[in-house]
Amino acid sequence: MSKDLQEYRAQYLARIKSQLLGADLGNAGATDLVMQSALLRAHSLVSSLDLQDIDYLRDMNGAALENYLQQAPNRARFEQQLASASVMPSIVSSAAIMAAVADSPTAMASVAGSAPAMTAIVGNAPITNLLVGNATAMKAVAASAVAMVAVIASPAAMAVVAVSSTAMAAMASSPTGMAALLANASAWTSVVSSPVAMTAVAASSVAMSALLANTAAWSAVVSSSAALAVVAASSIAMAAVAASPAGMAAVLASSAAAAVVAASSIAMAAVLAVPAALAAVVASSTGMAAMAASSVAIAAVLASPTALAAVISSSVAMTAVVASSTAMTAVLAAPTAFAAVAASAVAMTAIAATPAAMAAVLASPAALTAMVASSVAMTVVASSAAVSAITASSAGMGAVAASSAAMTIMLNSAAARGAIWASATALTAIQNAPSAVLDALQTHPQVSMMNNNPSNLTAAFVSGKSMTLRVKNANGSDTNYMRTLAGGSGTGDDTFTTTNAWVPRVRAYNNLCHYTWSSNFPFQAYVVNMN
């Protein structure tokens, strides 16, 4: 016995079908044929009534509908109803029915695969809103190219989807959904303009992979600081960007985009972890300018030995670093980092070529000490325009004069010798240098001993520029007269008293000669040829 009309119709149709298919039409008489015709008309009429009946859908929730559709005949009936132009509108316009459909993966797959059904749905705001808030429903929609065409074709539906975290999570995790969004400029603009949508995209490796493979779509993101900030805040998204040469190139080509990435510790960690991405950054003047201006980015670089090594090996990168007070302040505050900088000829060349950067080093006791202790750094400085800055700095020359190694490097350079000779500050620092430093300098190739007896007093000992280090008499005390003071020591004659003990006397001369004395004691001096 049937429990409802639906079951009755099913049993009735089955019985008619059985009789129709069991008939022997080849041997049927006229009466039999009339009977078969009547059965066919009855089957058609009842089938039509069955197709029109959607009340059974109103009585089921999602779980019940899903269970119902697991039977092939039931699913076939549901799909026939969706395919019926007269029945489908009644299904998709019913909030009660669609609530159950939205919770049934099987039902939603059928709905999403029906262009007429999806067109009707996106034209019905309440039903659209119902589906957009349902994860099961949106998963089916995102997986269906047919459904995506309908959604994207409706500006109203797309606007709702773009601000729904549920809908966008489904889209972002679906290759089909992402492909549809990326292929439509208007739809993608809606996504890029929505923080909700971009958050979903940035959280999905599927979405990011598809996005980075689409140059135009990625350019739209890069051009939007708000959208790119969402990407930069996602470790998943930035891992994908850092692994994409084209993706990184687009970011580094834009100062605004590079600044967004540089401001994010998550983004910087991802970029610095990928060798190719790091190489792209240090080779980009635009990218490095943004990085150097960001305390976040510089902190990340300084915390990574690999990243720091890449930066100090790149003239492009170091040019950006030395031009940024933010970067230089951070570098100078990190002893280990500055030690690495001082050991790099590339890095020190950039510093030496930038007056502000050199001034910052000279103003930092720790950095100055590290620079003076580095033969690489001192060799660069001694042969560059920066030598004028260091010889004019009391702190700078004090540190240099306290190091025999640094002083040796300075005296090896004609530019440095000239700068020292012309600087009263430098001469004073050397005058006050430790004895050990002066001891070491006495054997420098530029140094010789002036040993004047009465027979050669008036001859010029060094033509041009010279500098004395130490003076004494062979015995006794004597008043000495030397000429001509020059450079950092001023002008005129130099008069001083000596004993038979070596004492520092650092003075600059031009055409040095010991022209007279008060007693007849041989005069001796260590003299540096400063030409």
Automatic annotation (TrEMBL):
<keyword id="KW-0472">Membrane</keyword>
<feature type="transmembrane region" description="Helical">
    <location>
        <begin position="192"/>
        <end position="213"/>
    </location>
</feature>
<feature type="transmembrane region" description="Helical">
    <location>
        <begin position="289"/>
        <end position="312"/>
    </location>
</feature>
<feature type="transmembrane region" description="Helical">
    <location>
        <begin position="249"/>
        <end position="282"/>
    </location>
</feature>
<keyword id="KW-1133">Transmembrane helix</keyword>
<feature type="transmembrane region" description="Helical">
    <location>
        <begin position="108"/>
        <end position="132"/>
    </location>
</feature>
<feature type="transmembrane region" description="Helical">
    <location>
        <begin position="332"/>
        <end position="353"/>
    </location>
</feature>
<keyword id="KW-0812">Transmembrane</keyword>
<feature type="transmembrane region" description="Helical">
    <location>
        <begin position="144"/>
        <end position="172"/>
    </location>
</feature>
<feature type="transmembrane region" description="Helical">
    <location>
        <begin position="82"/>
        <end position="102"/>
    </location>
</feature>
<feature type="transmembrane region" description="Helical">
    <location>
        <begin position="360"/>
        <end position="381"/>
    </location>
</feature>
<feature type="transmembrane region" description="Helical">
    <location>
        <begin position="220"/>
        <end position="243"/>
    </location>
</feature>
<protein>
    <submittedName>
        <fullName>Uncharacterized protein</fullName>
    </submittedName>
</protein>
